[in-house]
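Task: fold both queries, return tokens.
Query 1:
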Amino acid sequence: MSEATVQARPGGRSARVRAAVHRAVGELLAEEPAEALTIPAIAARAGVHATTVYRRWGSVAQLLGDVATSRFSGDVVVPDTGSLAGDLERWMGDVATDLADPDVLALMRATIGSGPAGGSACTVDRHAQLGAIIERERARGGKVPSVERAIDALLGPLYYRAIFGGEPASSEWARGLVATLLAAIQV
């Protein structure tokens, strides 16, 4: 067979199993506390054998990390409004809306509680998005905070409120964090 006739499979059994297992995790988290998640329960809900799940993910913590990484990658678009304030306000509003979803919160809490790598699986894409917004403004010649300072000022309070607070922050409240950060870097 020549190289020209070889085609990659766009899905197949592996993609179907991954989708079914990810869906099963979401459904179970919506129905039960995270402590009730077990590989046999997830496998049964997904319609696959438990050894398939063990072989691919190894543990509930690794599976939750994969589900969270998949869920939090690319679901919030990095805006380009032409200004740092506009970009951050729109982005923070979108992130706050995402964090207000009960299913998202259940996944975040379960993933964070599953082990040391859990928090990273929930935030790595957000950090990259924030870094892209700041770098774009830097390229435009604007005054920008460090990515670390922006994470502390914007995502820290937003995630704290979502995970530990009684109810998630509103989009308006999240956008207010932007004004506070931008006022601090103008000093």
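Query 1 returned. Query 2:
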Amino acid sequence: MTCTDDVTESTVLLAEYDRLKEEQKTRIGFRDNLLYFTLAAATAVMAITAQSGQSRLLLFVPAICLILGWTYLANDEKISAIGDYVRDRLGPRLGELTSADGAVFGWEVYHRDVAGHTVRKRLQSAVDLFTYLVLPMVCTTAFWCSPVVQPLLLLASLGQTLALAILGLQFLRRTER
């Protein structure tokens, strides 16, 4: 008897499920920490700006929010893709193999149907939009209103504003899912 005699398709699918859920858990922790890190970094920049009186430093906040916002979105996309794959592909395939009566991995469906899910998702989207769009735009506006605005920095801030608008649209697109 070889080692492969004990391997069944359902065993492989369960191992895949375990690895996917581990990856999903890791990505959720990383994504959630990005939000805290973004807020801490933006607060630090604003404190340094207030202390030094150099309004041009405020343009670091949009840069920080753009980089970390895109990273946040990329992780959120993978987290959702894992859930979709488990719900739409892996669960049904394992259900066929085991002749299960109900849905396999029912949590993947259940937690989406719990009362208040849509409201919580929209509130989280509002927090995300505030952190990655409103906060940097407040800093950009404060820079624009400062007495010394250099043309090159103004041009950079306009580019950041365009990039933030694109990021905001991506956050809104994710909210609709």
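Both queries returned. Flag for query 2: Residues 58 and 139 are 5 Å apart (CA to CA).
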